[in-house]
Design a protein that fits this description.
Number of strands: 8
Helix content: 40-55%
Largest sheet: 6 strands, parallel
Oligomer: single chain
Shape: globular
Radius of gyration: 19 Å
Strand order of the largest sheet: 4-3-8-7-5-6
Number of domains: 1
Order of helices and strands: HHEEHEHHEHHEHEHEHEHHHHH
């Protein structure tokens, strides 16, 4: 695919304006194929874009952390990464038909971008994990240009040194694996310094790519049970899982509020 065909493969005015608002957060109703094409197009351009992969936990963290909520709302693209997001979209009458996970997005994006010489930088995860993830992807996609890897830290005092390290190799795409909400707050805070065309918070994706974490079997991912597999693998996640029932309550609450507003408008209209 040529640069021109990539640029014309997605019509932003029709695709990226198609959203469903879930508990105050707009989520793009977009296929995995269009996500990949959009990211490649943006990577070949100059304008900075912040991409977030949203799951129910993100939504509920946003209700507690207003700075993170604003980052989610202002992102260039908000991908539905979580079966709960798909469930909520159906209840709200604007179904998202496809879950677009962070791991699958990274794989498809790097595969397509490797054909166009796009330069990547991997930041975050435990020491050595970004390097292992990069090596794994290079073996899969020989043309892939990963110009830097670094664990670093999300601490404000380390920010300047990390930004200089990244800028020195001129990447077009930055993957940040510090976990939510820290990774996306870091991206938002440094965007004006880095001016990278595409920045994405990727959570535990490097661990999966490096082989240090195991993904749920495909049947569990398709049936929406990946959260259960991860809970079994990491029992300490149970506290985080408590946000899921709160998410369900929040979704039904937003539906009830919307129905009452519509009812009130009809009465007074």
């Amino acid at each position: 695919m040529s640069k021109m065909s990539v640029r014309n493969s997605v019509n932003d005015s029709t695709t990226l304006d198609d959203i469903v608002e879930i508990v105050g957060i707009p989520i793009n109703r977009i296929s995995s194929e269009d996500v990949t094409n959009t990211l490649v197009k943006w990577a070949l351009g100059q304008q900075p874009h912040h991409v977030v992969t949203v799951n129910p936990e993100f939504v509920m963290i946003g209700q507690e952390n207003k700075e993170f909520l604003q980052v989610l709302k202002s992102a260039s693209l908000r991908i539905a990464d979580g079966i709960g997001i798909l469930w909520a979209s159906y209840l709200l009458g604007k179904p998202i038909t496809e879950r677009v996970t962070g791991v699958d997005t990274v794989r498809s994006f790097t595969k397509e971008a490797s054909k166009h010489g796009v330069r990547f930088f991997f930041l975050g995860a435990a020491p050595g994990i970004a390097e292992l993830a990069a090596d794994s992807l290079r073996k899969e996609y020989p043309g892939l240009q990963i110009v830097g890897t670094y664990a670093g830290t999300p601490k404000v005092e380390d920010e300047e040194e990390i930004c200089e390290r990244i800028k020195s190799v001129h990447p077009q795409v930055l993957f940040v694996a510090y976990g939510a909400p820290i990774q996306d707050l870091w991206i938002a805070r440094t965007a004006h310094k880095l001016k990278i065309p595409v920045a994405i918070g990727v959570g535990g994706t490097f661990d999966f790519l490096a082989g240090t974490a195991i993904r749920a079997p495909r049947w569990m991912r398709r049936s929406g049970l990946e959260w259960l597999f991860r809970l079994i693998q990491e029992p300490r996640r149970w506290r985080r899982m408590l946000r899921l029932p709160r998410f369900v309550i929040a979704v039904f609450g937003s539906i009830w509020t919307r129905k009452n507003l519509l009812k009130g408008n009809r009465i007074h209209g």
